[in-house]
């Protein structure tokens, strides 16, 4: 993802000619994606209140009940039941907790660490930058899934393992992007001015560089949440993610794998949930990137 | 009197922005004859670049709109032409040199490829004759060892050289009108002097009509025959360079000339123009310069003045010069 | 105004040199030396302005960085208030920092877009002085007034100001610590022509009121001549002529200075046509010509010029580095 400079740098007076082309995007709220994200967050937080049934409640008599709009469906299980008779709607609601927590926590950790590395590498340059970037490159090339599988096999699958496995590799992407932006910022005069005023490294990094990378960070952060949700779902699907009985969308898909032709809703509905949520985050991230374009506005 | 190469009457180009409609070009009229150079002087936002982009219909889309006006090239009305016809005119009849030599040339193609392109397009040459003509063009812009330079890439050349290559491409046709938009602003002073001399020579050789856009009055006095001073999308004063510089009549022109430091005429204070350049989305009614004009009258704020003749060949758009 | 002040100069550069090594290859072999600044000597008197002119590659930007302490010299020395800057201890360096400030060319890149104007101007105070918030606030308002901006500007962000106003903010910041010397690196080049006069007038007024000295770097020769008491002309890392501003501008001695000021294009339509333009490109500082660095382009070059670099000699009250004046 290309780094975006905050200031316009070399352009003199705001050029009337350049402005009109940016008319189209931004300015209007992205109702669809914001709505889905807000709904998702609410559902995750209020899961105990919203869930119609206990997600672990099994009822072998009620196995494979279809959703309410199909023949054989019942209002008691709006989205049907899975192979153990557990209510699908409740499981999906509770599963959102896992996805949201995994997404947000992992991304926050990766951001904090990755941005710090990027800031330091960009500011100092030279050998510090070279070393940090080699480490970053090596990290980026390690497959997340493999690491999670190794952890699952050695230490046992758990929520913590998922977060650790992803965060430990995800930070590198942040480091790369932030470093790129810092390099651009370092060429701007106000950094030289801070030096001339006597500012030291700490002040320049925290007071001048970091706030000017916030826009990029926010956009990247939002876009990565979708990515993490998919990875977590994949890991759960493979059995290396969140272990049962905690409902996770990925493992729900795995459980319904064999019944795709007969009881499609067991895999299909959690899959749809993932699709909607990830799409919403990606659209939101795109909108943020356009809106936060430095030529138009500041955060 | 011969038909001028380019004759513009009451040109108006508006830009629709989220801040309102900007009248980037607001009723501009001028003409340039063969072998003549018209200087278009103004600050940022004055409309000088937009005017010239309007001539070749390359104003930014979709926001810009040529609202009205007539543009005649050798008597041929351009505003009625289709886009396909305009494409034949761009480069062939009207050429334009832009300010930044770094981005005017494509960095991944050699100089030769870029110079050959217009030549093959306009003259249909191929192979050896194409290369020969391209080398001749480079020689015409005084690039040493032109045959070897054909293989060079833009990054291997200095800014001044690159502007020469751009110049070579511009005269490939050769065109009837050459528009130069601040071509020397990013060049060193001594290189600038060389380049200006080159432009004069090319103009003489090909009998080009030239429009030279700049904010540097020194350049205007050196190579322009006539000058049009623009402010907020309108021409406020126009006439022969000598006359305008010796006896400027419009308050803006006078203030501008007085605010520029001059070698050899050390003054204690420069006469600064009060205020800020106008916000084109929120122009006051009446004369656009009135808020900053030391001689503004009530009439100026109410009504925008048309151009009045103040001397043979010199006009000034100011109520001070309205016939009594 | 005479170039040689009777009192000791505020800042003096003696044999100032800065070479950059160019490194290529995986292991960073040194493949060349950029002689950005080569044994440059000049003086800036208190309350005066030294104008520094030259084209790209001449070393004026590097010189300004050396004066500001953003780069360390390879050789030579800078003496400030009589004391050599290189040998200063911690508190001495801090004093130098506070005494020498800068205003740069690009009004859109020199102010942190995320800080309010008041904080931007106060930053040097925050870093260097122990005064409380109230004292700082008062000083910020004082500085805003000094540069002609209203009080409420302190609460606004840079993007709410025009280019000229932003330069005023930059000037206010530069004056926050009451420096004795301000380096002005193309302070008006990025501004509209009608605004330049405002800023140049402001700078001159401030010099008179506050007694600050300027190192004025610009490519607008008329502006430099207007603002400066003395002018130094640089070419490929060396000073080729240095003297009283009017003298250098109107009666240049060095052939390069003559070509440079001729290329400056006076507005006066009655001015005599100037000398023909210089031929050739500005050579790269990686491989400057031997002998006098200007000799390949010089219309008056003699045999000696190709082999022997000319030393600066006094001629009519100024220094010229040219064999024609020996």
Description:
The complex is a heterotrimer of chains A (299), B (324) and C (326). Chain A is mainly α and 299 residues long. In chain A, 64% of the residues lie in helices and 0% in strands. Mean pLDDT of chain A is 83; it is low at 1-26. With 324 residues, chain B is of the alpha/beta class. Chain B folds into two domains: 6-33 and 45-84 and 224-321, Rossmann fold (3-Layer(aba) Sandwich); 99-172. Chain B is built from twelve helices and twelve strands. Chain B has helices at residues 48-55, 83-89, 101-104, 111-123, 127-140, 146-149, 159-170, 189-206, 217-223, 241-246, 251-259, 298-302, and strands at 6-17, 20-32, 37-41, 64-73, 76-77, 94-97, 177-181, 209-214, 226-231, 234-240, 308-311, 314-316. In chain B, helix 4 (111-123) crosses helix 5, helix 4 packs parallel to helix 7 (159-170) and helix 7 runs parallel beside helix 8. The radius of gyration of chain B is 21 Å and the shape is globular. Mean pLDDT of chain C is 88; it is low at 1-5. In chain C, helix 3 (117-128) packs across helix 4, helix 3 packs parallel to helix 5 (163-175) and helix 4 (133-146) packs across helix 5 (163-175). Chain C has one domain: 3-Layer(aba) Sandwich (Rossmann fold). Chain C contains ten helices and twelve strands. Chains in contact: A-B, A-C, B-C. Chains A and B meet through loops of A and strand 1 of B.
Counting DSSP E segments of at least 2 residues, the number of strands of chain B comes to 12
General form of chain C: globular
Helix content of chain B: 25-40%
Named CATH topology of the largest domain in chain B: Rossmann fold
Alpha plus pi helix count of chain B: 12
What is the radius of gyration of chain C computed over CA atoms, rounded to a whole number of angstroms? 21 Å
Uncertain spans of chain C: 1-5
> Mind describing the biggest β-sheet of chain B?
8 strands, mixed
Strands in their spatial order, largest beta sheet of chain C: 6-7-8-3-9-10-12-11
Q: What order do the helices and strands of chain B follow?
A: EEEHEEHEHHHHHEHEHEEHHHEE
CATH superfamily of the largest domain in chain B: P-loop containing nucleotide triphosphate hydrolases
SSE order of chain C, as H and E?
A: EEEHEEHEHHHEHEHEEHHHEE
Give a count of the beta strands of chain C, DSSP E runs of length 2 or more: 12
Name the CATH class of the largest domain in chain B.
Alpha Beta
- The residue fraction in helices of chain C comes out at 25-40%
Indicate the proportion of strand residues of chain B: 15-25%
């Amino acid at each position: 993802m290309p780094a975006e400079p905050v200031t316009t740098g070399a352009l003199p007076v705001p050029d009337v000619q350049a402005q009109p082309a940016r008319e189209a995007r931004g300015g209007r709220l992205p109702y669809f994606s914001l709505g889905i994200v807000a709904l998702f967050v609410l559902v995750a937080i209020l899961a105990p209140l919203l869930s119609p049934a206990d997600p672990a409640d099994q009822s072998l008599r009620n196995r494979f009940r279809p959703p309410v709009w199909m023949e054989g469906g019942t209002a008691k299980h709006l989205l049907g039941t899975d192979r153990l008779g557990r209510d699908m709607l409740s499981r999906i609601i509770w599963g959102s907790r896992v996805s949201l927590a995994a997404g947000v926590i992992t991304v926050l950790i990766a951001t904090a660490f990755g941005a710090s590395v990027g800031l330091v590498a960009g500011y100092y340059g030279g050998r510090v930058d070279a070393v940090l970037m080699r480490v970053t490159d090596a990290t980026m090339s390690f497959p997340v899934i493999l690491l999670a599988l190794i952890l699952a096999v050695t230490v046992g699958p758990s929520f913590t393992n998922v977060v650790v496995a992803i965060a430990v590799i995800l930070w590198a992407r942040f480091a790369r992007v932030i470093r790129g932006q810092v390099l651009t910022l370092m060429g701007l005069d106000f950094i030289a001015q801070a030096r001339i005023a006597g500012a030291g490294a700490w002040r320049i990094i925290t007071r001048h560089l970091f706030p000017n990378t916030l826009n990029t960070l926010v956009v990247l952060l939002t876009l990565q949440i979708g990515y993490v949700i998919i990875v977590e779902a994949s890991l759960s699907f493979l059995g290396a993610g969140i272990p049962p009985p905690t409902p996770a969308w990925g493992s729900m898909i795995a459980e319904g794998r064999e019944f795709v032709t007969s009881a499609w809703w067991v895999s299909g509905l959690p899959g749809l949930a993932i699709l909607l949520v990830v799409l919403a985050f990606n659209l939101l991230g795109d909108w943020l990137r356009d809106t936060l374009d430095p030529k138009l506005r500041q955060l | 009197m011969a038909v001028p190469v380019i004759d513009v009457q009451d040109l108006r180009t508006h830009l629709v922005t989220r801040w309102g409609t900007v009248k980037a070009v607001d009723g501009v009229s001028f003409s340039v004859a063969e072998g003549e150079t018209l200087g278009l002087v103004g600050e940022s936002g004055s409309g000088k670049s937009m005017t010239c982009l309007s001539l070749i219909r390359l104003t930014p889309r979709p926001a810009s709109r040529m609202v009205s006006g007539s543009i005649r090239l050798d008597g041929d009305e351009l505003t009625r032409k289709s886009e396909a016809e305009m494409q034949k005119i761009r480069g062939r009849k009207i050429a334009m040199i832009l300010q930044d030599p770094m981005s005017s040339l494509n960095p991944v193609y050699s100089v030769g490829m870029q110079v050959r392109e217009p030549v093959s397009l306009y003259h249909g040459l191929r192979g050896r004759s194409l290369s020969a003509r391209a080398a001749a063009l480079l020689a015409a812009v005084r690039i040493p060892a032109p045959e070897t330079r054909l293989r060079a890439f833009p990054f291997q050349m200095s800014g001044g050289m690159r502007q020469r290559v751009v110049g070579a491409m511009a005269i490939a046709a050769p065109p009837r009108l050459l528009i130069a938009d601040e071509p020397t602003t990013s060049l060193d002073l001594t290189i600038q002097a060389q380049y200006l001399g080159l432009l004069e020579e090319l103009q003489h050789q090909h009998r080009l009509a030239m429009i030279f856009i700049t904010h540097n009055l020194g350049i205007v006095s050196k190579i322009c025959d006539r000058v049009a001073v623009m402010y907020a999308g309108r021409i406020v004063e126009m006439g022969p360079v000598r006359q305008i510089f010796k006896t400027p009549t419009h308050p803006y022109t006078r203030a501008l000339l007085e605010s520029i430091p001059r070698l050899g005429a050390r003054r204690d204070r420069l006469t600064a123009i009060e205020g800020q350049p106008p916000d084109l989305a929120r122009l006051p009614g009446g004369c656009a310069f009135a808020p900053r004009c030391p001689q503004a009258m009530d009439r100026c704020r109410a009504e925008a003045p048309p151009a009045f003749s103040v001397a043979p060949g010199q006009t000034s758009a100011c109520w001070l010069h309205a016939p009594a | 105004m005479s170039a040689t002040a009777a009192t000791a100069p505020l800042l003096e550069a003696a044999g100032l040199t800065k070479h950059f090594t160019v490194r290529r290859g995986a292991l960073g072999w040194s493949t060349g030396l950029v002689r950005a600044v080569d044994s440059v000597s000049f003086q800036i008197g208190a309350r005066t302005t030294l104008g520094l002119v030259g084209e790209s590659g001449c070393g004026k930007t590097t010189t300004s960085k050396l004066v500001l302490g953003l780069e360390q010299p390879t050789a030579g020395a800078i003496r400030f208030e009589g004391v050599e800057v290189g040998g200063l201890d911690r508190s001495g360096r801090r004093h130098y920092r506070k005494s020498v400030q800068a205003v740069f060319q690009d009004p859109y890149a020199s102010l942190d877009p995320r800080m309010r104007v008041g904080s931007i101007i106060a930053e040097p105070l925050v870093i260097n002085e122990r005064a409380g918030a109230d004292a700082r606030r008062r000083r910020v308002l004082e500085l805003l007034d000094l540069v002609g901006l209203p009080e409420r500007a302190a609460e606004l962000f840079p993007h709410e100001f025009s280019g000229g106003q932003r330069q005023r903010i930059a000037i206010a910041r530069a004056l926050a610590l009451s420096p004795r010397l301000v380096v002005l690196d193309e302070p008006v080049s990025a501004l509209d022509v009608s605004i330049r006069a405002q800023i140049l007038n402001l700078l001159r007024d401030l010099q008179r009121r506050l007694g600050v000295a300027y190192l004025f770097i610009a490519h607008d020769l008329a502006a430099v001549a207007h603002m400066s008491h003395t002018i130094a002309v640089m070419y490929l890392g060396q000073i080729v002529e240095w003297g009283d501003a009017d003298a250098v501008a109107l009666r240049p001695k060095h052939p390069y200075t003559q070509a440079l000021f001729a290329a400056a294009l006076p507005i006066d339509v009655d001015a005599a046509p100037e000398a023909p333009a210089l031929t050739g490109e500005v050579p790269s500082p990686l491989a400057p010509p031997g002998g006098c660095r200007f000799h390949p382009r010089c219309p008056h070059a003699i045999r000696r010029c190709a082999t022997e670099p000319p030393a600066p000699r006094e001629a009519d009250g100024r220094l010229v580095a040219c064999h024609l004046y020996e």
